[in-house]
Amino acid sequence: MSAAMDTESTYSGYSHYSGHSKKAHRQGRDRHKSPRSKDGSRSEKSVTIQTPPAEPLLGNDASRAEEGQDDNWGETTTAITGTSEHSISQEDIARISKDLEDSVGLDCKRYLGLTVAAVLGLLVFLTPIAFILLPQILWRDDLEPCGTVCEGLFISVAFKLLILLIGTWALFFRQPKADLPRVFVFRALLLVLIFLFVFSYWLFYGVRILDSKDTNYQGIVQYAVSLVDALLFIHYLAIVLLELRQLQPMFTVKVVRSTDGESRYYSLGHLSIQRAALVVLENYYRDFTVSNPALLTASKSRAAKHMAGLKVYNVDGPGNNASGQSRAMIAAAARRRDSSHNELYYEEADHERRVRKRRARLVVAVEEAFTHIKRLQAEEQQKAPGEMMDPREAAQAIFPSMARALQKYLRTTRQQQYHSMESILQHLSFCITNNMTPKAFLERYLNPGPTLQYDRDRWFSKQWTLVSEEAVTSGLQDGVVFVLKCLDFSLVVNVKKIPFIKLSEEFIDPKSHKFVLRLQSETSV
């Protein structure tokens, strides 16, 4: 729309200075209103979502600046823009609303699973105690006296239940890291197994003990001890299935980011596809550099420029013979296409030169600022303790001296959207508090770090979509490919099985390393 307004203002100025009448000016203005009305009708079908304001050090429009500008362009350039980073259509909004409804369903499913597991766990721990207490409550007078062995079994049951409680808390009572699309098969099987096991014990207890009112109390206590022992074995089985089985590496997965092609390799054990996707995402936030869409704008603009250079227009109309002119335009477009590698070479060389220059200026500015900090610290030591400057005030005092150099460097490397002024001040005060060097302060900005290094609101994707031809509950297999999608990019995961390695042994005789040195008796002196 801003382009249409610029065109309209240019046209109106031209008509004013050329002496056209008001009617001609009105007609020209009406003609230029028509494309703007088309844009308005198009805006009804698409919605632009602005990114949340987080006080970036610079505007995001700086990443779209032309590469051919001089080194002092930031001093004389003012850019005002309202362009956002993401544009989505009404279909995408409908899909997002559907995803929100699905997330509500996932929350209900998660709480339902936790409720069932909690109820079943409570039933498991109360069952042995109920087995021991019910005979004492219902037919206490008919029971045989409990001897020393029976009382020792009480202690055994108590300690075994305590061990089972601690093991269950350590294995199952953890904060969930993610909401998976399907249930965890092994955990569901363990819950079913525990339910059937406890139900069978209650059934036997009701038929053989409650109905007949068995008077052998020591046998009843022994029956409760056998239940606790079996529960301990089931807990051991849960450790093997849930924790130990996946430790041995069996597969190698290659993770490729779709936008820039950055890739990593990971080794995984026997996991389902959904749990493997969870492991991949956990490693992604730690190992991959943050996704920066601004780095792709230069290549896109260069490709669009070359595609525009291949267009041929016949200005004489379809009826005239303009084959010679068309051939000349095609030849010129082919020459521009052949020279595209030269343009790319010089663009990259100029960008690298500019980055090195900005980097040198930034390093010098930061070193001077930290030298000033050391001088201030030496002066503060001579003052009273109440007049000492805290690290936050010191960071605010030296930040203006390095702000311009840091600003230009972040613009040139297109990192300004990931570093707000508040985050830079916090990092600077942290470095001052821990007596860190200028090189330690600059490490965050000179070397793009992992995704977790930046502010959570600028990189974190609340929902990922798992796309797989196989069932997500099935295990990993050789050649399986699945995709993890978010709003800006996707991760393509390719699974390869670690090959079977056969080692052979070769025996070397120790005597083969021995040799005899023979010297001639007649030697020249």
From TrEMBL:
Residues of the region (Disordered) are: 1-86
**Is the keyword Acetylation assigned to this protein?**
no
Membrane topology classification? Multi-pass membrane protein
Broad class of where this protein is predominantly found: membrane
Show the ranges annotated as biased composition (Basic residues): 19-35
Keyword Protein transport assigned: no
List the transmembrane segments.
111-133, 153-172, 184-204, 224-244
Q: Where is the composition biased (Basic and acidic residues)?
A: 36-45
Q: Where in the cell is it found?
A: Cell membrane
Any one cellular component term from GO for this entry?
plasma membrane
**What keyword terms does UniProt attach to this protein?**
Cell membrane, Membrane, Transmembrane, Transmembrane helix
So what family is this one in? Answer: Belongs to the Vang family.
Question: What is the protein name stated in its UniProt record?
Answer: VANG1 protein
Organism equals Pomatorhinus ruficollis
Record gene name: Vangl1
